[in-house]
């Protein structure tokens, strides 16, 4: 490569021969051959490429195909070299030769040094621009992530609060119930109840387990009143306290009469108190089991959603990830009808599960915001050719064309500050397209918006 080769190029028009000579000395002439790759998208942009003659095609990976996004087809066109000012700069496209020619390749470090020496102020401005833009983007995304995390945390805390409170109440009541149970056993022993009598009372207690539970509130109230009156008529102390527990277990006055036939006199009250305490303890244990089980399910949902203790790349059941996302956002789905359409036989795919869950979160969150508390959210998963196709649709007002066109732009949002996660579709697009070689598209019209994500199975 000679100085004369570059002198006529507009790119170097403001440089003198000495500066061009320094650039030539710092660089290397590289031949362009059709089909030969010169630099690759996503790799460190540690070289600057200036076209002298020939042609280079620029392409990016979109889904499973390489899409041409531009051409270096005129002398003086250039690409790369971003690491001269940004230590994390990468190539934005892949460059392949299409027409024989030459390109000057200059290491980014050398380019940065020359630019600093020739144009110190300009070099400073470029470096500041790179770092400022990256800092703003990083801060904005961090803030967005924190807001989203806070929203999810508040939602899961709300869901956990109810079963946790129920478990706490059950424990407190169980403590009192067990005290009563022990005291009634002592009273029974004091009445010289025989083993045969106790066995008869226990058989009556066991019978209650097979009786249907009264669920109608009015019927249950009437039953409690009948039992309380019967207990008062038969001299049982604190009938008002025993009646609700016996009624909840399915006991009626006929059952009480049979109990009176098994143990009579002063032993009847302690016997019924023991039965009431026993059935109450059983009911409270069932409530405690259900509450703690619900908490365990929610914890499992959080682990599934965040993919804790799992490798980043793994075999992923897409429908399972969507279900965990819907569970995480369950506090927001009140009033919304959720329709799941999961086709059978959809195979798992190799994916970054936690990242895909971010995609489903953005799509579902946007749909819920669009419907504002009422409507139908439809989520479909099916195998379409060699792709797993996921459709998230809502019955909201839809996007106007101007919004749909910009939906995948970074930082674009139609939401108020502090609400939701922003549209977040630029994040979703990068995860789907760049990380998983898939595609994502919008189809929006009044009353219906549909996001279609396609993920390759191979």
Structure description:
This protein has helices at 3-7, 17-26, 108-118, 120-190, 195-208, 217-233, 239-249, 253-262, 268-306, 318-328, 353-371, 401-406, 425-436; strands spanning 28-32, 37-39, 47-62, 65-72, 78-80, 94-107, 313-316, 336-342, 349-352, 375-384, 387-394, 439-445, 448-456. The protein folds into three domains: 3-118, Sandwich (Jelly Rolls), CATH 2.60.120.10; 157-298, no CATH class; 312-456, Histidine kinase-like ATPase, C-terminal domain (Heat Shock Protein 90). The protein is α+β, with helices and mostly antiparallel strands and 458 residues long. The chain is rod-shaped and about 120 Å long. The protein starts with a helix and ends with a strand. Helices cover 52% and strands 21% of the residues. This is ATP-binding protein. Keywords: ATP-binding, Nucleotide-binding. Residues 288-458 form the Histidine kinase domain.
């Amino acid at each position: 490569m000679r100085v004369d080769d570059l002198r006529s190029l507009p790119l170097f028009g403001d440089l003198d021969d000495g500066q061009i000579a320094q650039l030539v000395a710092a660089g290397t002439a590289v031949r362009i051959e059709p089909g030969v790759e010169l630099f690759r998208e996503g790799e460190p942009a540690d070289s600057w490429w200036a076209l002298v003659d020939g042609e280079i095609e620029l392409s990016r990976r979109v889904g499973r195909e390489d899409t041409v996004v531009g051409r270096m087809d005129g002398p003086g066109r250039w690409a790369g070299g971003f690491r001269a000012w940004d230590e994390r700069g990468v190539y934005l496209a892949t460059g392949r030769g299409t027409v024989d020619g030459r390109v000057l390749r200059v290491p980014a470090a050398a380019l940065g040094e020359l630019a600093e020496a020739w144009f110190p102020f300009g070099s400073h401005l470029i470096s500041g621009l790179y770092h400022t833009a990256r800092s703003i983007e990083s801060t904005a995304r961090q803030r967005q992530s924190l807001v989203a995390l806070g929203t999810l945390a508040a939602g899961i805390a709300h869901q956990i609060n109810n079963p946790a409170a129920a478990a706490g109440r059950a424990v407190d009541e169980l403590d009192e119930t067990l005290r009563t149970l022990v005291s009634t056993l002592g009273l029974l022993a004091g009445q010289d109840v025989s083993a045969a009598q106790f066995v008869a009372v226990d058989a009556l207690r066991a019978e209650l387990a097979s009786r249907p539970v009264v669920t109608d509130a009015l019927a249950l109230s009437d039953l409690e009143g009948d039992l309380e009156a019967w207990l008062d008529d038969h001299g049982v102390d604190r009938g008002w306290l025993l009646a609700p527990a016996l009624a909840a277990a399915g006991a009626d006055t006929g059952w009480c009469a049979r109990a009176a036939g098994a143990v009579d006199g002063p032993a009847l009250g302690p016997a019924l108190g023991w039965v009431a305490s026993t059935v109450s303890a059983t009911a409270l244990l069932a409530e405690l089991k259900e509450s703690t089980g619900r908490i365990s399910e929610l914890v499992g949902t959080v682990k599934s959603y965040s993919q804790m203790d799992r490798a980043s790349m793994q075999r992923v059941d897409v429908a399972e990830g969507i279900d965990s996302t819907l569970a995480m956002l369950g506090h927001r789905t009140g009033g919304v009808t959720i329709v799941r359409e999961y086709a059978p036989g959809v195979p798992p795919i190799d994916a970054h599960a936690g990242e895909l869950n971010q995609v489903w979160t953005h799509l579902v969150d946007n749909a819920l915001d669009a419907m504002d508390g009422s409507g139908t959210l439809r989520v479909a998963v099916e195998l379409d050719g060699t792709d797993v196709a996921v459709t998230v649709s809502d019955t909201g007002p839809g996007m106007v064309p101007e919004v749909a066109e910009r939906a995948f732009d970074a930082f674009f949002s139609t939401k108020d500050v502090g609400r939701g996660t922003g549209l977040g579709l630029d994040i979703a697009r990068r995860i789907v397209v760049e990380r998983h070689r898939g595609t994502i598209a919008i189809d929006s019209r009044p009353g219906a918006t549909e996001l279609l994500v396609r993920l390759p199975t191979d």
